[in-house]
Amino acid sequence: VAEVPAPHLGLRWRPVTEPDLDQARGLIERCAEVDRPLARLCPAEITERLAGTAAAATESLGGFSQDGTLRAMATVYLPADDVDVLRAFLTATIDPRWRGRGIGRALLDWQDARARQLLAAEGRDLPVRIGAYVDEHLADRRKLYVAAGFSPKRVYQEMRRPVAAPAPDAPLPEGLRLVDWAPDLDDAVRRASNEAFADHWGAEPMSPAAWAVARDEIEPAWSKIAVTPAGEVAAFALTSRHAHAWARLGTSEGYTEQLGVREAYRGRGVARALLVAVVEALAGDGVETAALTVDTVDPALRGFSEDLGYRREGARILYTIEI
């Protein structure tokens, strides 16, 4: 049974609904001032995590103080189209002034139980993963997940480089040409992404609905696509404008969310050429910093990024329970 946190914690519990979205965003901002997260959810992602979309089933639980203020919330988020591993992702946010009272552990107990119920209701004979991403500098939160039976499964490094730093010469291989992302290319890029990441740990195919949310803040001029003479997508670097995070970062930034190369085009310097093109586009728009995420399980990926001037600035750890 997924029991809501006990009344002695001082909050009234109910689902977080659409009228609460402004309060939810405010709570996330208050926590960000203290936690200094490596990444911030964009408005569309916050709405998706709390209200759900065609791309995901979501359940939420909010804790409200007597004056009606949202002080804590938790979500259980199930992608709708998993085919290899059924996944549930957990997020929780607690007002800094309400921490240290046992609310975090109570919410995690509810999330774990509710995730198991929702995954069991899927009725599919597949492996199951319950996961949560935690910034490495949030030691108390990492301890909380370990105490609840979660184990660190993957470490994803956040890497950045000054756009003003010199970029190496990196021409595209002969036969490919570079274009900016455009709506008429979008579904071809989605299909290329599903192909490019099919052999990556933890990746699941993205439906059009899931893709639409994932690319909500993509900046077309900063997102570079390598296409063949026949117009097929060979590789892509999709870069977002997370302007809502720039004040916290203290810099303007282009964040490359996805860098993928279809198997037939690997080993020819395509990814390198795409990233250099992204940096040049950022420079042309006066953006100060380029950023991306690297899965540390492959040291070559980190070396590849460092060769292009990116440097580590922190990491997020995926904690999971594998069932």
TrEMBL record:
<dbReference type="Pfam" id="PF00583">
    <property type="entry name" value="Acetyltransf_1"/>
</dbReference>
<dbReference type="InterPro" id="IPR016181">
    <property type="entry name" value="Acyl_CoA_acyltransferase"/>
</dbReference>
<dbReference type="InterPro" id="IPR050680">
    <property type="entry name" value="YpeA/RimI_acetyltransf"/>
</dbReference>
<dbReference type="GO" id="GO:0016747">
    <property type="term" value="F:acyltransferase activity, transferring groups other than amino-acyl groups"/>
</dbReference>
<keyword id="KW-0808">Transferase</keyword>
<feature type="domain" description="N-acetyltransferase">
    <location>
        <begin position="176"/>
        <end position="323"/>
    </location>
</feature>
<protein>
    <submittedName>
        <fullName>GNAT family N-acetyltransferase</fullName>
    </submittedName>
</protein>
<dbReference type="InterPro" id="IPR000182">
    <property type="entry name" value="GNAT_dom"/>
</dbReference>
<feature type="domain" description="N-acetyltransferase">
    <location>
        <begin position="11"/>
        <end position="179"/>
    </location>
</feature>
<keyword id="KW-0012">Acyltransferase</keyword>
